[in-house]
Specification:
Layout (H helix, E strand, L loop, with lengths): L1 H18 L2 H4 L10 E3 L12 E3 L24 E2 L42 E3 L4 E7 L13 E5 L10 H4 L3 E5 L14 E7 L6 E12 L2 E11 L1
Parallel strand pairs: 4-10
Antiparallel strand pairs: 1-2, 3-10, 5-8, 6-7, 6-9, 9-10
Length: about 230
């Protein structure tokens, strides 16, 4: 009876330890902002005190604490199918929940995914600099691999979303995931990167933020950007 009781206590204690890691295990990153404007030129401060967001991903809810959307429902990150991520859906499978994420499919018209409870669409021009922000979510520490953030921009103007395979042919930037501000809060640590808008005709295009946490474990955020 003593051995049985001891074993039961050990099992319960072990489960308690593992459950305490669940929030961190569920924390994956996403594009918090597609068009971040710094308050001071040349000073890359990604915190809310260092600038403001003027363009967001599709159906990005406003009024949330930075980096908190992994605990919301639906959460923010969309994880692609790990079996074959190069042919997975690029933006969302429209299944909200802890393992899949928010709905970032294209709206018809695209403007329906912006305004009201959601952030505004990014409006830019060829040659402009776009700066994208994301939360570290505990993955920018020294011992984590520094997988690059891929930025893909469709060449299809005012069109339906292209496939992930086509997006991979239209990579316009590879950003340093660990380009973050110093912070003792590794979960909500602000990070980001900037790139130039390439030559495109005037119109609305799909922009994809794509990042690999572990091998073939890809997370994406999709946005419409209007090039004027």
């Amino acid at each position: 009876m003593v051995l049985k009781s001891s074993f039961t206590i050990l099992v319960v204690a072990t489960l308690a330890v593992f459950s305490s890691y669940t929030p961190q295990a569920e924390a994956h990153s996403w594009a918090d902002c597609i068009d971040w404007k710094f308050n001071k030129a040349g000073n890359q401060d990604w915190s809310d005190k260092g600038g403001k967001c003027t363009g967001y991903a599709r159906r990005f809810p406003l009024g949330k604490v930075f980096g908190s959307l992994d605990s919301a429902y639906p959460n923010r990150h969309y994880q692609q199918d790990r079996q074959n991520p190069s042919t997975a859906l690029p933006c969302s499978d429209r299944k909200a929940g802890a393992t899949r994420g928010s709905d970032e499919t294209r709206a018809n018209p695209p403007s329906k995914a912006y305004g009201g409870e959601y952030g505004r669409m990014t409006v830019t021009s060829v040659g402009d600099t776009l700066c994208v922000r994301w939360p570290a979510k505990n993955h920018a520490q020294v011992f984590h691999p520094n997988h690059k953030v891929q930025i893909h921009l469709s060449k299809s103007r005012n069109a339906k979303d292209i496939s992930q395979q086509e997006l991979l042919k239209n990579t316009i930037a590879n950003l340093n995931y660990k380009n973050c501000n110093p912070s003792s809060d590794e979960d909500h640590r602000p990070c980001g990167g900037c790139f130039k808008v390439p030559v495109r005709a005037k119109g609305i295009y799909l922009l994809q933020w794509r990042w690999m946490l572990n091998q073939d474990e890809w997370y994406t955020s999709c946005a419409d950007i209007e090039i004027k």
